[in-house]
């Protein structure tokens, strides 16, 4: 269970994300903070259904999932704010580097060498992120071609999530 302690609580995660995304808008022009709020809520609820011990980790990861990728915030900044080493590792994995090929990025997430419950929380959070990015009420330029790529990603995530769920439930 200690591995699932993010070291940052839900309120801190919201405050960090709010500051990190201040002034940012999504492709529809809405305040960007609504995206991490959505991802945090969905991943937390899905993880709660699997096991309540996963919910907070998923919420915090969902709130912060884009902070390192889309703001000046660094992993080191999160560690200074209390992030545990395992949570910091998940943040490194969920943050796509500039210029990184998308399929290589997602394959790295799917094949990460992590404890099953931590890996499950990471992939459920990424799936919630991709699902929200595919939401037809949030269209953007290139929406259809992007959604083809995201559909493939979600299919790969679903297979690995199912494997990890069975592993976590069997433990």
Describe this entry's structure for a reader.
The chain has 171 residues and is mainly α. 66% of the residues lie in helices and 0% in strands. Helix 1 runs parallel beside helix 3. The longest helix is centred in the C-terminal third of the chain and has 28 residues. It is globular.
Radius of gyration: 15 Å
SSE pattern, N- to C-terminal: HHHHHHHHH
User: Quick check: average pLDDT?
Assistant: 92
Low-confidence stretches: none
Strand content: under 5%
Helix content: 55-70%
Q: What class would the helix/strand composition place it in?
A: mainly alpha
Q: Give the overall shape, derived from the CA principal axes.
A: globular
Tally of DSSP β-strands = 0
Major sheet details: none
Q: Report the total helices.
A: 9
Terminal CA distance: 12 Å
Walk me through the topology.
Layout: H1 10-20, H2 34-50, H3 55-64, H4 67-70, H5 75-80, H6 85-94, H7 102-110, H8 116-133, H9 143-170
In short:
The chain has 171 residues and is mainly alpha-helical.
């Amino acid at each position: 269970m200690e591995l699932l302690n993010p070291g940052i609580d839900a309120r801190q995660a919201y405050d960090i994300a709010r500051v990190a995304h201040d002034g940012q808008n999504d492709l529809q022009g809405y305040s960007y903070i609504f995206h991490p709020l959505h991802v945090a809520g969905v991943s937390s609820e899905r993880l709660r259904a699997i096991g309540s011990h996963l919910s907070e980790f998923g919420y915090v990861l969902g709130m912060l999932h884009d902070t390192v990728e889309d703001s000046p915030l660094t992993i080191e900044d999160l560690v200074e704010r209390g992030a545990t080493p395992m949570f910091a590792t998940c943040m490194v994995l969920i943050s796509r580097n500039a210029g990184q090929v998308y399929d290589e990025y997602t394959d790295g997430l799917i094949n990460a060498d992590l404890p099953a419950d931590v890996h499950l929380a990471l992939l459920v959070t990424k799936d919630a992120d991709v699902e929200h990015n595919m939401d037809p009420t949030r269209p953007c330029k290139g929406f259809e071609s992007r959604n083809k790529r995201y559909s493939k990603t979600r299919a790969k995530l679903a297979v690995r999530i199912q494997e990890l769920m069975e592993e976590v439930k069997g433990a």
